[in-house]
Write a structure and sequence with these properties.
single chain; alpha/beta; Rossmann fold; seven-stranded mixed sheet; 7 helices; about 30% helix
């Protein structure tokens, strides 16, 4: 199994749906997800920098131990904030420790999700950017999760949706994009033909 395939598989298993109460990947596999080797195929700064600016409010459901979260915190700067939401407290505890070691703890808020509740209702209409990386296909109720993200985004706020090759087909990804449109998100642009399972979506400035 290649580095990208292994990372995608473990990421998908380790960051289960916010609505899921069982069948979670063991928390200790989160250490694999933050391995420096993963950067050979998924460079957090390269992926995130086009979308994130200083001062932004960002949410990341399913952050694991923070492979992308720490880079998000660097990009939003001291005036920004990253809200990381996970169903496993051990993942969040490890993320907090890593953020503290990196000097980024003051930019990070962690929240423990409960089955059926992403836990970001208080952020309605405030979020600039949301990241769903290698996790949406594992969510039993994708529409509910996407609706929560939509509600949290401010007008013109954006969502970067990425799914793992080898685990999600083009047809499945198209179905997820259709659900995005159903909850009100619109395609800002596709992230490139070389990355067919990536899309950037936005919340329209004017309600549809």
């Amino acid at each position: 199994m290649g580095v990208e395939s292994a990372a995608g598989s473990c990421a998908a298993a380790g960051r289960k749906a916010m609505t899921m109460a069982s069948h979670r990947c063991p928390w200790w596999l989160g250490y694999f997800l933050v391995s420096p080797i993963r950067r050979l195929v998924e460079d957090p700064r390269k992926i995130l920098a086009p979308h994130v600016r200083e001062g932004m409010l960002v949410i990341e459901p399913g952050p694991g131990m923070g492979f992308f979260t720490l880079e998000l915190a660097r990009l939003v700067g001291p005036q920004g904030r990253v809200v990381a939401v996970d169903v496993q407290e051990r993942m969040l505890a490890a993320l907090r420790r890593r953020a503290a070691r990196a000097g980024l703890a003051d930019r990070l808020e962690t929240r423990l999700a409960t089955p059926g509740d992403l836990g970001v209702a208080d952020l309605a209409g405030q979020v600039d950017f949301a990241l769903l990386f290698h996790m949406l296909h594992e969510v039993p109720d994708q529409a509910a999760l996407l609706a929560s993200v939509y509600a949290a985004l401010k007008p013109d706020g954006r969502l970067l949706l990425v799914e793992p090759r080898g685990h999600v087909s083009a047809a499945q990804f198209a179905a997820s994009l259709a659900l995005c449109r159903t909850v009100g998100l619109v395609s800002a642009y596709m992230a490139g033909v070389s990355q067919p399972l990536r899309a950037v979506l936005s919340k329209p400035a004017q309600p549809r």
